[in-house]
């Protein structure tokens, strides 16, 4: 898989936490993690969720991500020393450990662009899941076409950066319907000097049916399909596709 500058460039990684705060998804996942003795966060990014899950000191928590700058932030955050951070992409992750809960948050599932990449991730989940363990991830429902809002007009925002001061931010996108891939640009313009940091990222928008087929192929089982982080069931017009599953039937 091609590495994404948005996560691999130290300057761009500095913007991640400014743009992504604690969310209803984090609250849902923190609650789900309450019963787990061990948690694996794949594509953990800057580690806010993993460090919060680990904060009570009762769980073994591992966060895995291929992007060094994201993990550097994760290590330095409050509670970061309670988590084992592993620099690895999902496909080649082999920890020789099993986990009660394996999660991907913040739509990390969508960075896996092809069915082959998605299947490799799901097989990694299957390899690391303890008997009776659970897995969960989220993917934006392609039917909602959320990317249409990622245009410069609607996405324009101002961010206060601790070192650069005020920064104008915006996105743009191209949609490739045949592959159901969206390429989106992220732009940060430092107002003080006009300097622009930018990246082009690609994410996939598989359907619920496609995800279900791959989950089954990886010998995993979905027990609940949620359609949002309030815990409502998935339906065709739901904003999110969120499978909560296990190694075998029954949670
Ligand atoms: C949208 S961010 C989500 C970060 C974090 N989970 C959150 O909720 O804030 C996607 C993350 O997936 C990571 N990633 C990209 N390719 C990956 C891969 N092949 N395996 C595992 N993680 C990957 C990126 O480095 C990035 O940190």
Automatic annotation (TrEMBL):
One of its GO terms (molecular function) is 3-demethylubiquinol 3-O-methyltransferase activity. It is an enzyme of class 2 (transferase). Keywords: Methyltransferase, S-adenosyl-L-methionine, Transferase. One of its GO terms (biological process) is methylation. Gene3D superfamilies: Vaccinia Virus protein VP39. The keyword tRNA processing does not apply. This is Class I SAM-dependent methyltransferase. It comes from Pseudochrobactrum kiredjianiae. Its EC number is 2.1.1.222, 2.1.1.64. It holds the Pfam family Methyltransf_25. The keyword DNA-binding does not apply. Residues 39-133 form the Methyltransferase domain.
